[in-house]
Amino acid sequence: MLSTEGARGLTHPRVDKQAGLPAGTTSYYFRTRKLLLHGVAERLTELDLGDLSMMDERSDRFERQYAGTLGLARLVMLSGTEPYLTRTRARFELILHAHRDPDLAAIVSTYGAQFYSRAREVIARWYDDPTVPAAQIEESAVVVLTFISGIMTSFIHGSPVITDAHHLDQLIRHLLAR
């Protein structure tokens, strides 16, 4: 609902109806609309971080398929396909709404920091050189994540600028090589 109706379209009665719950169930658990949005943000964070952890586990078992920048590219490409696209749209709605709600901003920020940390680890492994200054790795992480954010925005808009994980991997590697 959040991804299609926006933050204003997310109401207790609509959630009850969509979920097939008795009237009043959602408002029992989330007393206010603000708490409902916070609950959605926490659940999205939980789901997304679970997916990130799964990617980490896969990279340990299936190194070639999910490791490094290709694993990151595959994760980004998933965000443009259902059911992940719905989550991506909902996450962006929450990000926009968070500017008016500091508590929501804190929840959204927690997710962003953890995603950044994982992406930074991938980038540090890509360099695979202990002499590379930490500042260069940080700068590369910012550049790559800004690029990825633009790609995810194109998914939300419905006009993907990248449609293949291998192509995205090549572009990420090109950015890192500069």
From TrEMBL:
Q: Could you tell me which InterPro entries the record lists for this protein?
A: Tet_transcr_reg_TetR-rel_C_sf (IPR036271), TetR_C_31 (IPR041583)
Q: Name one Pfam family in it.
A: TetR_C_31
Stretches of the chain forming a coiled coil according to its record: none
Question: What is the name attached to this protein's record?
Answer: Tetracyclin repressor-like C-terminal group 31 domain-containing protein
Cited SUPFAM superfamilies: Tetracyclin repressor-like, C-terminal domain
Q: Which residues form the Tetracyclin repressor-like C-terminal group domain?
A: 72-177
